[in-house]
Amino acid sequence: MRKTLLLLTLTLFGAGSGKGQAPTFAEDVAPLIYQHCAHCHNVNGIAPMPLTSYQDVYQNRFLISVAVQNKLMPPWPPAPDYQHFAGENYLEDGEIATIKAWVDNMAPRGDSTLEPPPPVFSTDGLLGTPDLALRIPTYTSQATTNDDYVCITLDPGLATTKRIKSIEVIPGNRQILHHVLIYLDSSGTYQPGTALNGCTGPGGGRLLGAYVPGQQPIRFPNGDNVKMGITLHPNEVVVLAMHYPEGSLGQVDSTVVNFHFYDDAVTQVREIQANSLIEEWAFLFFPGDVQTISGNYGPLSQDWSLLSVFPHCHLLGKSWLVKGEQQNNDTIPIIHIPHWDFEWQGFYFFDYIKKLPQGTRLRASCTYDNSSTNPHNPNNPPAVVTAGLNTSNEMFIVYFHYLPYEPGDEFINLDSLQNLPTPVTQVVSSSPTPRITPFPNPAVREMTLDYYLPKGADIALEIRDLQGRRIRRVWSGKQAAGQYHARWDLRTDQGARVARGLYIAALTIGSRRVSAKFVVE
Fold this sequence. Notes:
521 residues
């Protein structure tokens, strides 16, 4: 077995708050709040109060402690132990314990000179200046005792074909805009500048994506060797299927949708499709019912590459499970939402593209609770609920982004291709959380594992397979705080070269572990 070379390049950042000392805002809590919470909790965000300063966080410390301990915040409905997605945003148990300990110990600020700079957010969107911005004419909600569904048609005014690489919706009124489905239509039925009430989208239109509160911009895979998107033809109009909830009558909205296109010189763009492949409308819930509804799609006539999933229901929903079943009965995990939250839903893009072999059948199930024990039940006492469009009705729909499979798609890291360029001030701390970065990714001959320790600790640096089995122990022992680089020769503990595939770089620091996935080619 070759001896792994540990590069002794070390940058010391100080000892931080040290073992046994109470966490401080400056060194321990601010990096967590600014990274995981502030993108919603800011003066321009969708959350009710900003959390962009010590004073903000201190004033709301008890509420924060309860919310994170009950895992209500930050909201991340998918179960990480079932499937991983790009841009996952949840706190690990050790991070939750840090926030609780800080609050329990009177929430000290610590040395304010060590605080990261407060993040600053723009109202103009995360993706910068768009190639095309379409604003709806000012619309006044018609929602009285029923929700208001309206299709508003906009003319892109394009003379040539464009290929969409990203889409961002900027809500005009965050308080009343429940969701937007974005379609392209060439039927001639939908005329620019018109608003068609009672409309949930053009039946023959092409779906691009959706906006719901908390949804990040949709950014299709775009790297040096992979470019995917959706074509916008000159004869197509953009139809925004808007949803304004009951009680918003008279309030106005002027939402904008921003499009970013590939350069015209880029012609090799693989075409993505988006559709609601699984739907069920034939169900009825009596008062007190707890039912599980199921639906499926397939079997697939060819190999697919699956990019995203978006299960959708309303307030009676309790949990979702979506999976693929192959012809050999093997299961492909897609998404599990153990505790459905109507307020936090949308398209979830996978960390790596999922290959669905020919013959795979997509299956989905959702459990609904129409009893008085469901705190989200819109009816008190419970009433008969049918399938329908209003929030007080129910839905069973699963949307997907997908395209025909090409060899190697399953090794494409969507997380790295969807990092959002953002005008947000970078969160930098003198004592950031531990991290590990494998590069190059994919690796061919060798790999460097770049990792950071904010405090001295006993560590173990290991390579594991997707079943958690150890492939190689790269380093173990006591290390001081600092930045390290370790080379791995792509060999196992027994000296054999690892097979091509997906692996995990795991850095264990005491009882805590951080990890990152990578590909070996």
